[in-house]
Write a sequence for this structure.
């Protein structure tokens, strides 16, 4: 690994490109997000002040407090808030234990507002902690699109002991269709052969969810 020359310290951009994203300081990461400051506030000073705001703000007031800063417009405030949300979505599920169907909802809720159906497969370890959330397909759910091969190859790669199936209904209704039921049946049959248990199939919308397990319809 290369050593950073303190006398000729690289910029945030150079540091990220040469050494990886794990090396820039928090302020430098913000500088990369912001791109540039303003005439009255250079980007390094803006980033430093933003860190102070982030460190003292609740999640639901970040945008409001960033907008209150001099020189920070809607674009920069939303860019920072979006980066925080993306990071949370990509990491918040790691190690989360799933004990009931509703426990999975916070980790797949963002798909509920999509105009297309997203079929997800959540892999779990032996303690039913989340390993990874996979998007298997995008489009209408049917057996031709959801092939057991695509589902179980990811579970095998994750060394999963179990999985939970999820998808959204853009219509807003969480009632399963005939295609939903048939696709679930096919995957359950495959799970018995692969010895990777399917714990549930959860359908989500903006305001509700349907659990095959809770409704007693999780069977082949």
């Amino acid at each position: 690994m290369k050593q950073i020359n303190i006398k000729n310290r690289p910029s945030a951009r150079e540091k990220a490109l040469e050494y990886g994203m794990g090396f820039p300081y928090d302020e430098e990461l913000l500088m990369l997000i912001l791109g540039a400051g303003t005439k009255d506030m250079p980007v390094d000073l803006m980033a430093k002040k933003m860190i102070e705001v982030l460190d003292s703000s609740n999640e639901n007031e970040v945008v409001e407090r960033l907008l209150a800063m001099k020189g920070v417009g809607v674009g920069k405030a939303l860019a920072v808030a979006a980066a925080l949300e993306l990071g949370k979505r990509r990491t918040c599920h790691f190690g989360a234990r799933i004990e009931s169907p509703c426990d999975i909802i916070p980790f797949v809720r963002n798909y509920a507002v999509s105009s297309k159906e997203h079929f997800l497969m959540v892999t779990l370890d032996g303690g039913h902690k989340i390993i990874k959330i996979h998007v298997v397909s995008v489009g209408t759910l049917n057996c031709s699109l959801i092939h057991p091969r695509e589902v179980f190859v990811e579970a095998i790669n994750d060394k999963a002991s179990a999985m939970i199936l999820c998808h959204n209904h853009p219509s807003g209704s969480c009632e399963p269709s005939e295609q939903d039921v048939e696709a679930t049946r096919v995957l359950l049959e495959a799970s018995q052969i692969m010895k990777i248990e399917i714990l549930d199939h959860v359908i989500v919308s903006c305001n509700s969810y349907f659990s095959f397990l809770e409704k007693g319809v999780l069977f082949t």
User: Anything to note?
Assistant: The helical segments are 12-19, 26-34, 43-55, 62-67, 74-91, 105-108, 148-157, 178-194. The longest strand covers residues 130-138. The longest helix spans residues 74-91. Residues 115 and 209 are 17 Å apart (CA to CA).
